[in-house]
Amino acid sequence: MKKQQKKEEKKKINSLRKFTRTNYIIYAVVAAVLLVAGGFATMAGFNPGRDYKISYTDTGRIDYKVYLKENDFFKDPYLSSSKTKSYITSLIDYLDLDFNYSLDFDDPVNIDYNYHFVATVTADKPRSGAGSTASGNGEFLTRTYDLTEEVSSKQESTRNLSISENLKINYDEYNKFLSDFKTSTRVAATGNLKISLVFDGSIYSDAIGEPTALEYEEVYFNIPLAESSVEATVTGNSNEPREHFITRHIDQDIVYSAILRTVGILMAIAGVLVAVVAVRDYRDVQSSKRFDNTVKHLLNTYDSVIVEVDKQPKLTGMNVLTVNDFDELLDVYNSIHMPVSYYSDNIGAHFIVISEHMAWRYSILKRDFKKKK
After folding, report:
1. How far is the first Cα of the chain from the last one, in angstroms, to the nearest whole number?
2. Which domain holds residue 146?
3. DSSP label at 91?
4. Half-sphere exposure of residue 336, counting CA atoms within 13 Å on the CB side?
5. Do the Cβ atoms of 199 and 116 come closer than 8 Å?
6. Exposed, middle or buried by CB within 10 Å (0-12, 13-18, 19+), for 270?
7. Residue 2 counted as domain residue
8. What is the mean pLDDT of residues 192-209?
9. Are strands 319-322 and 233-235 parallel, antiparallel or unpaired?
10. For the segment 261-286, what is each residue's pLDDT rounded down to a tens digit?
11. Parallel, antiparallel or unpaired: strands 319-322 and 348-354
């Protein structure tokens, strides 16, 4: 019977140890997760925001052909940019220009833009120096003509924008205008005709917030006027893409920050509480082990004189003396040769020796072990 009882006690103790180990692992994992997650959430709640950067490239390209009047000198009806850049103004009929302008973004954006094409005629004072035809020391005249109507458009969530336009320019008309100006005013002036793309645009997205203006480097075609031999040049643009950057500081939403801080602090507090509970339970288990080991030692050592009973013996009408040491109880046993009765309850373990009208009791209390470290 005693062997069976010891076996069951051993099984119970092993089960308890396994349970407490599992509890410690769970406590440790939960406390760590709560503390780490709470720390990250709290720090995120104090985040001042972030810098958001969008990069984009713009590319401007102009292909042109100079169409000639019927003449006995050139077989081809036109001269292209790939063949020559010098022309005789009296033979030029019109210009055929292909404008191509594109924008490419790293991230999708919303674009609002408008554009149109203009022709600008200028009459400038010539630079000093023999044979110079370049403009330089001031403008006599500037006149701008709209070549196309303004186009306004919007594109949403796009990574690229492309503008293509073919323009037919009556060069002879603009050249005659400048020749008449010089004849009428009798001023020495160098003239230029500039065909340009006028572009204005802005982008916006959830990431960058309010609309931001795009950087635009003018794309234009320039050709002199009223000269016997002229050089057509394409300037202000490049076939190589130009890179631009837009950087915006995005503040974190105030409500979102407050929620993060609150959640983070609550999670950290919960983590601390879990850790406190784990420490408390650990101490309770350790004190329970010390209590069990102390009782077990007495039961094993004095197995021959101790009798285990299910409940406290009746002590009504008896004079009950409490002893402070188990050895004192053994002295009583040796004097009256009555067995030591043992029982346990929620308070602790109790050992009693009973005679006819007296009882001696020694108690091991659980609370005494909780005070020990």
Report:
1. 36
2. 50-250
3. G
4. 16
5. no
6. middle
7. no
8. 88
9. unpaired
10. 888 889 889 888 888 888 887 788 88
11. unpaired
pTM of the model: 0.56
CB 326 within 8 Å of CB 362: yes
Tens-place pLDDT, residues 6-62: 555 555 555 555 556 677 788 888 888 888 988 888 888 777 777 778 899 999 888
Over residues 166-191, the pLDDT tens digits come to 999 999 889 888 888 888 888 888 88
Q: How many domains does the chain have?
A: 3
SS3 content of the chain, % helix, strand, coil (to 5): 35, 45, 25
Residues 165 and 69 in one domain: yes
Give the position of tokens 């022309």. Answer: 87
Looking only at Cα atoms, what is the longest distance across the chain? Answer: 153
Q: Which are the contacts of 26, defined by CB distance < 8 A and separation ≥ 6?
A: none
Same-domain status, 58 and 165: yes
309 and 368 co-located in one domain: yes
DSSP helix/strand/coil, 72: coil
In this structure, the answer to whether residues 54 and 36 fall within a common structural domain is no
> Are 56 and 208 in contact, with CB atoms under 8 Å apart?
no
Are residues 263 and 140 part of one domain?
no
198 and 62, same structural domain? yes
Q: Is 10 part of any domain?
A: no
